[in-house]
Design a protein that fits this description.
Elements: E1 5-15, H1 22-31, E2 37-49, E3 58-63, E4 76-81, E5 93-99, E6 104-109, E7 117-125, E8 127-134, H2 149-187, H3 204-207, H4 212-226, H5 228-238, H6 251-292, H7 301-312, H8 314-322, H9 327-342, H10 349-355, H11 381-410, H12 412-417, E9 426-437
Antiparallel strand pairs: 1-9, 2-3, 2-7, 3-6, 4-7, 5-6, 8-9
């Protein structure tokens, strides 16, 4: 099926020094659409009914409206909560089914139940989002095939999250390398850093390129179609499970999900190289202190560096050395948590999703920033888990990265000594919201 998809250009500016979340980035996509048209200033939600009150779909009415002129059957309905609400969460659809003079009826699929009571600014939405197109990825809006809007957008949001994360990790990488080179020029010695990453011949510099994800898709597609055993070997090397939960899968979903998990996992190898550079700098600073004979009272730059490492903390230092938790370890921890939570010996993907909001990891706390359910309206828990574990890995990598940025701030005096400095970048992202117009025949 082909639909008429419009692209609505938008720009997102992110200060990487500020907290950014996947859910926050997701919400921004919807904020980029033209605002809905307010038709009635007031309304009263009532008559809520459903054959399945907990999961829907639900039917409800809005009465007491000043007018319904402008609404069309099939429109998406929106409004501002008062004592009631039209629906909660992010429903797949909230569609008007019948229109009266001062009232209307509507049906909600996905999200959460309507609540009886007053609402204001009852509106029709001109567009329904079908996806996003991030300019740096070069992936256009899709106008055909099966559109799983939430899954597609959230995959791209994960890649956007990765781009913002790498925007501050690249200058950190450059700074530490430049600091080491400056020290090496003074104290001598050979400090060799292997730039290669563990798979597919990639190097650290590839991590900072915008086309790495596309290159991963090409490489993994080739392995998936022609050498599954080699693909499994690659994934095992990175600690990534192959199809951890079964379901009605497809090559397109598997390949995208594997590529995302590989991308998230490569940061682990990056952090191991960062740890090696930090160790080299610590050694070189000790030699620098001796070579420059710091004045009395004794002042040692190596001591400043060591105190900054103390601030970084042993847990984060250990994660730098190990590369952090692997995707497989995250999945194992989730399964173990669900088994203990339900006192079961075997758990399903649905079991994990039912208790996941209680899940925490040492150091990281609750290791995700999505609002649940992950994909309202699509009942595929195995798919949600397969996507979520990669996002948890990315989340943990960002926590390690922000701790590393704090460490860099703590050694500003050392950096300044060699004419170096660090500032978080401000990232500008050009993208388009992909959408279909609601009831275009209605004007």
């Amino acid at each position: 099926m082909t639909v008429n998809v419009v692209t609505i250009p938008a720009t997102l500016t992110i200060d990487a020094s500020q907290t950014f979340t996947m859910q926050g980035l997701f919400n921004t996509v919807y904020a980029s659409l033209p605002p809905p048209t307010v038709i009635s200033a007031t309304g009263v939600v009532g008559g809520v009914s459903s054959i399945s009150p907990d999961t829907g779909p639900w039917s409800a009415t809005v009465s007491g409206m000043t007018t319904t002129n402008g609404f069309l059957v099939g429109d998406k309905i929106l409004g501002t909560n008062g004592t009631g609400q039209l629906y909660g969460g992010n429903p797949t659809s909230a569609q008007i089914t019948k229109i009266g003079t001062t009232s209307l009826e509507y049906t909600v699929v996905g999200g959460t139940t309507p609540v009886s009571g007053t609402v204001t600014n009852v509106s029709r939405s001109q567009y329904t989002v079908t996806g996003i197109s991030l300019q740096f990825l070069g992936i256009p809006c899709s106008n055909s095939g099966v559109m799983d809007t939430y899954a597609d957008i959230k995959t791209q949001i994960s890649l956007l999250y990765n781009k913002i994360m790498k925007s501050y990790l690249q200058p950190i990488w450059d700074l530490l390398n430049n600091l080491l080179k400056s020290l090496q020029n003074i104290v001598g010695g050979i400090f060799d850093i292997d730039l290669t990453l563990p798979v597919l011949g990639f190097t650290v510099n590839d991590l900072f390129s915008d086309n790495l994800y596309q290159r991963l898709i090409v490489a993994i597609t080739n392995l998936y179609n022609n050498s599954v055993d080699e693909l499994k070997r690659l994934l095992n090397l990175l600690g990534i499970p192959f199809e951890p939960f079964g379901g009605l899968s497809s090559p397109s979903f598997d390949i995208v999900n594997i590529a995302k998990n590989v991308l998230a996992s490569l940061w682990g190898a990056f952090y191991q190289k960062i740890k090696k550079i930090i160790d080299y700098i610590k050694t070189a600073l000790t030699a620098y202190d001796i070579a420059t004979e710091q004045p009395t009272p004794t002042f040692q730059w190596s001591t400043v560096f060591s105190k900054a490492l103390d601030i970084l903390g042993q847990a984060i230092i250990d994660f730098l050395a190990s590369g952090g938790l692997t995707v497989q370890q995250i999945l194992d921890d989730l399964i173990a948590f669900a088994k203990a939570f339900y006192n079961k010996t075997v758990v399903t993907a649905q079991d994990i999703l039912n208790c996941i909001q209680n899940f925490t990891l040492p150091v990281f706390g609750k290791p995700f920033d999505w609002v649940f359910p992950i994909n309202p309206g699509v009942n595929a828990p195995w798919k949600d888990i397969n996507q979520l574990i990669g996002d948890i890995k990315m989340f943990c990598s960002n926590i390690i990265g922000t701790a590393l940025a704090s460490f860099i701030k703590a050694i500003e005096a050392i950096l300044s000594l060699f004419g170096l400095s660090f500032n978080f970048p401000v990232v500008t992202i050009n993208y388009s919201a992909c959408a279909v117009e609601n009831n275009p025949q209605g004007g």
